[in-house]
């Protein structure tokens, strides 16, 4: 019986997995270089964590979580996002006691949505969270890290940064009342989701893409008019740092993010290259979440990168030819296999290259064809003549160079030089 992939899940197969690895390693190198440390979080948390932390009136909690009961009847959910679990782990692990941890995590998240290109029910995120730092310099650091990571991936020209300030909880409560008063007489002009949100989460109406709703919002009260002086000053400081660093951005006054825990600075990186799946990364400040989840009052901020969309954008905009291996070891005569395996192992250890061991039962021509298909740059040939002379034959597969007979030491030096010392 053939078993099919569960709808909304995905396999990542070679050579696509090589592109995923490049994207992931590039981003993580930037985070580690800024002093962020890895935290590993469970896939399953108590459902109440997300209800309380993310917000019961959010689409994520209302409609999108994969939830179940364990054998004792406890409500559990596959994690739909990483921030709430990271905060829970910091509280449980005592990481916030007199410390200002900067953390990153990486892995699968799960949301029950209609699958489409760039949106799976299982999707991968890299997230970063930083705690104990109330100033605008943290907001700037998060954005600057992302700008650098996207630039190193070659994606800078295809992404733009949108930022906004949504103020404090008190600011938003005052604005919420004014927005509801404004929209209530216009309820018939709103789309179905927005009519539902009018009673539960009216700020999300600002994000609506429905033309009728956007028209109804044309003369709506402006959130920025309800910000406190402190909130205005904080946002101005963040913008000043971005200006000084030469990081381009657009203030999007309708950007509110979809999760209840955010306050003050929020941001998204978006692209025009992926159709409706425009957002590839989002984040902001969430100063009240730690206390809400039972920890000490702690300012915090973070972001989540949607790797599925970043990889899709990278595939569309950055040409790559991913080789399976760097070097194919070729044996001439199976009686010489033991020596060929030893040579392959020595090349691996001393060059750091990916060296594929020879396969038994295949002729030299077949092995060389396999090497060519793999994308390998070189073939190292080991046969009777090579063993007798104490050498190996080095064959270039991507360059017009003469095959050379070399000692293993010479081959190591040659391969290291030609590969850039990797």
Condensed summary:
The chain is α+β, with helices and mostly antiparallel strands.
In words, what does this structure look like?
The mean pLDDT is 91. This protein is 39% helix and 19% strand. It is elongated. By secondary structure, it is α+β, with helices and mostly antiparallel strands. The strands form three sheets. An eight-stranded mixed β-sheet has the order 1-5-6-11-10-9-7-8. The longest helix is centred in the N-terminal third of the chain and has 18 residues, at 16-33.
> Radius of gyration from the CA trace?
27 Å
What's the mean pLDDT score?
Answer: 91
Structural class designation: alpha+beta
Q: Biggest sheet, strands in spatial order?
A: 1-5-6-11-10-9-7-8
Total beta-strand segments: 16
**Largest sheet report:** 8 strands, mixed
Q: Beta fraction of the residues?
A: 15-25%
Low-confidence runs: none
Classify the oligomer.
single chain
Shape call: elongated
Features:
422 residues; alpha+beta; 8-stranded mixed β-sheet; 5-stranded mixed β-sheet; 15 helices
Question: What's the layout of helices and strands?
Answer:
Layout: H1 16-33, E1 37-38, E2 44-46, H2 47-53, H3 59-64, E3 67-69, E4 75-78, H4 83-92, E5 102-110, E6 122-131, H5 136-152, E7 160-165, H6 169-183, H7 192-200, H8 211-216, H9 229-245, E8 250-251, E9 263-270, E10 279-285, H10 289-292, E11 300-306, H11 307-317, E12 327-331, H12 337-351, E13 355-356, H13 364-374, E14 378-382, H14 384-389, E15 392-396, E16 404-406, H15 408-418
Parallel strand pairs: 1-5, 7-8, 12-13, 12-14
Antiparallel strand pairs: 2-4, 3-4, 5-6, 6-11, 7-9, 9-10, 10-11, 14-15, 15-16
Helix pairs in contact: 1-5, 1-11, 5-9, 12-15
